[in-house]
C-alpha cells in the first residue's frame, strides 16, 4: 500500500484562509485574493499554447483545432494566475536529519508541499506536484479537486531521496510550468549558486512567481555534529572527509555565509522569494509567513529575503535577514 | 653539592655553563612527544553523513593554514614545557668566570688515575682536559698547573700559546704511587694564587680540578672542608670547578682484603721486632689498579702501593717493624675508588707457650691417660682431632666424644721417662708432672727445687708407688720443701667420689639421694701438712681442697707455693688407666675413663699454668663470608658479642653454631666476643671448678660469618659524598621551574585563544 503523507492539522489551521496571489494582478478582477477561479472559464483570452500530455482536455480550443488540426489550449489570465506548481527536491542530500531536527529535510519539505497543496485545494486552485532528483522525477499534472489532493499526498508520501542534480533537472522541466504561475520549490539550496541561478532563471521566465522554500537542518547551519573528530561522508557523493569539527566551524560559517549571500543575490536579481525553513521550526508559522511575504512582495513589487525560523538569532547564519 | 661540568673538554672562557645532573639531559628527546602526538589520530572519528560537502571542503581549505598554525603552536608550547622541565631537573648552572682572574689547574696524579680502562687511563684523559683548558685561556692569561699528589708539585705557569710546552711536560708524568695530600694541595694553590685567594682581590680566581669523576675522590677532597680549614677561603673566594675525565665507565666493583695473617713461613727468617704479615687482596674490577695498603700498629704507620691484577686475588708479603709491643695492628685498604675503606685487624698477640714435662715411669710407648689428655688439649694437628673436637678413648671401657674448644698456644708437652734431669729442658719447663712411680734422684730433686723456686710448678700425682720404700727420699723431700706429708692410702670402698656435678665437686655421695654417675675412686693418698714444717715456715693459707673425702675430710689436692713456684699434690693418680684400675685390688680409680678426665685435665692445666687469669683479648680479622674461630672456655657459658658502641648481644645456639644477631649496623670497629659463666655466683680465682661437660658437639663451634650483617666491616659515607660551597653558581633550576609552571598555567589559555582564532 502506497504510504500517504499525513498532514498536520496545526499547520493547516495556521495557513487556512491564506493563499498566494497570482502574478499579473489577476486579483484586481476578483473580489478577493481567494476568489474562485473557474477552470477554463476565462473571460479574457490571452494566448494559445500547445497541448501537452496531462493538460485538461476541457481547455482545448476546438475552434483552433478545427482550423489548424492541432490541439491548442486556450489560456486565459485568470487561469494562469491560479496555477501553482509545487516542486519537491528529492535528491539524496535532503535525507539528512541532524540531532536537533525534528525530521529529515525531505520529510519537512514534503510536509510543506503537501500543506500548500491542501491550501490550493481549499481555495479551489489548481496545482501540480513534482518530486525531482537527478535520477528520477514524479509529477502530477496541474489539476484540482480532492482526488488530486489525495494523489498529491500519496506521491509526496511515497517519494524517496536519491541521486543529485536537482537543479539541472528542474531547469529542464521549467518549460513545463505554466506561465504566470506560482512555483514553490522546496529544496536545501546547497548546490553551486551558479547552477541554482541558471535554474531559477529558467523557472522565473514567463512571469512565473518563484517562491524558494530553503529547507535546512539547524546542524547544517553551524556544523554541529556532536563530535570532535568526524568523518563526513557525502550523501550525494562518495567523498569522505576527516576533520575536527570545532577547528573548522568558524571557517564553515564563513563559507556558508558567503554561499547564502550569493544565493540572496541571485534571488534578488530574479525576484525570487527565498524563505529559509529550519527543520526544527514551526512549519505552519513558516508557511503562513511565506505566503504573507509573497502577498506583500506581490503588492509592493519588492523582493525581500525572508528568513523564517524559530531558530534563535544567535544560531542564524551571520548576515541573514530576519 | 659538587657542581661538575660534564661538558668536556671545552670550558667557556666567560661563563661556565653546566649541569649538575647532566645524565638527565638525554631526556630532552621527550620534548618531541607533543609533535608526534599531533600527527597521530587522536581518536576514532565519528561517522556522519553530510549533504553540503562542497561547503565543508571549502571550509577545510580555508581553515587549514590556521589549523596547522594552531597545532604547531600548541605542540611547541607543550614541547617547550617538557624541555624546560627536563632542563630544570638537570639543574643547570651558570657561573661567571672572570677572564682576567688567575687560574690554577690541579691535575690529579694520584694512584687511581692510573686506572686503565680499555687501553686508556684516567690520567691520560685528565691530561687532555688540562691541555684543553690551557688552550682556552685568554691571551696573556696564565694558568698555574699543580700536580696533586703526596706531596703535590708545582709544574709551572702556562699561557694559551704554551700548550705544546705543557704537553711535553705532561708526557713525562705518570701517576704516582700515592694518594693526595689535600691540605698540601690547598696550600700550594694558595701560594700560587698569591693574595687573590684570600679575598684581597675583587677578581675571583678560578680553580680547575681535573680528576676522574667516577671514583670517590670527592670523599677525600671533602675532608678538608671545615670552618677553620684553609679550604674555607678556597671555597669562599674562588670559583672551583671540577673537570671530570669522561671515560666510558664500566661498573666498578672495587676490591677487598681477603685475608691478613701472620706469615708462618717467614717468621723464623725475620729477626728482632720485625713481624711478617701476608695479605691477600681481591680485585673485583676488570681493570688493574694500584691501591695503597696502610698498616697502622700503634704509633707505627706505613703505607705502600700494591698493584692488583684485574679480577683476581693477589697475595702480598708485608713486614711490620716495631710491632712487638702492640697487641694488634690494623691493615687498611684505602682507595678513593672504594666507597669505603676495607679494614682488617690482625692480632699480633703471641701468648707465652708453656712447656709441660711429664715424667712417667712406664718405658713403653703407651701414653698414660694424662699424657693423652694433654696432647689432645694441646695439639690440634693430630689426626684424631676433628678440628675442635677430640675423640678421647680409654681402652674400650668408655668411648666418649668430647667437643672442646682448644686453647691457642697450648702447652708444649714433653715426655720423659724416669729421670727428669736428663734433659736440660726440665729447667725451662713451666710444669713438671711427676707421675706415680717416678722418683727423682738427689741431684734431680735439687734441680727441681731450683726450678720451683724460680717459678716452676711441680705436680706430684700420688699413687700406690709413692708409699713404697723407694719413695721415701722423695716423700721426705716433698715434706721438706712444702710440709706435705704422704701418710697412707685410704680405702674408699663404701664411698665413691662423684666428680661430675654442675659447678662444684662433692665426694660426699651419701649426702646425695641419688649418686650422680662419675668416676669410681676406691683409694686415695691421705695428705697432711707437716705441723713442724708449718711452724717453721711462713705458710700461706693452704689452698682449697676442692676434692675431699667424704668422711675423713682427707684432702685430694694440695697446692703449696714454694718460692716463685708452686708444688701441687694430687691424691689420685691420673696416670692410672681404667683397665689397670679394674685389673686387681690395687685399682684406685677409673677417673681416666670418664668424660670428666679431659676437662679436668684442662682445668688443672689452666690452674697450674696460671691460665685462670682473665683472658687477654684476642682479635680476629673478620671478613664477610669468613669463619670466625673463637676460643671459648668449656662449660656452660654465655658468650656475648659486644659491639663497638658497647651494646652486647647474647650468642645463642643454632644448627650452624653459635649465633649472635643484631640489627643492621654500619659501624666498623672491634666486635668483641666475651663469655661469662652462667652462674651468677662469683667464683674465686683459686677455686677449681670442675665442670659438667656438655657433649653436644656444637659447643665452641664457630660463629657463622654470614650471621653477621654484611655491613659490619663496612663504612658508609652517608650524605657526605658531596661538598658544599665549592662553586657558587647561579642555579637556573628555580627560574626554569617557574617558567615551566607559567607555561602550564598559560597552556589552556593559549589553547583557548587559538581555538577562538579558528572561530
Description:
The complex is a heterodimer of chains A (322) and B (759). Chain A has one domain: Rossmann fold (3-Layer(aba) Sandwich). Residues 25-44, 77-81 and 302-322 of chain A have low confidence and may be disordered. In chain A, the strands form 3 sheets. A 7-stranded mixed sheet of chain A has the order 5-4-3-6-7-10-11, sandwiched between helices. Chain A has a two-stranded antiparallel sheet with strand order 1-2. Chain A has helices at residues 9-15, 62-68, 77-82, 105-122, 146-158, 166-173, 193-204, 218-222, 245-269, 283-300, and strands at residues 45-50, 72-76, 83-89, 126-132, 137-143, 182-187, 209-216, 229-234, 240-244, 273-278, 306-308. The longest helix of chain A is centred in the C-terminal third of the chain and has 25 residues, at 245-269. Helices cover 37% and strands 20% of the residues of chain A. With 322 residues, chain A is of the alpha/beta class. Chain A has 10 helices and 11 strands. With 759 residues, chain B is of the alpha/beta class. Chain B folds into 5 domains: 21-41 and 58-90 and 730-757, no CATH class; 98-245, Rossmann fold (3-Layer(aba) Sandwich), CATH 3.40.50.410; 255-334, Sandwich (Immunoglobulin-like), CATH 2.60.40; 355-488 and 524-608, Rossmann fold; 637-680 and 703-713, no CATH class. Helices cover 23% and strands 26% of the residues of chain B. Chain B contains 15 helices and 34 strands. In chain B, a hairpin with a 5-residue loop joins strand 30 (637-642) and strand 31 (648-654). Classes of the chains: A alpha/beta (322), B alpha/beta (759). The interface between A and B is medium-sized, with 42 and 28 residues.
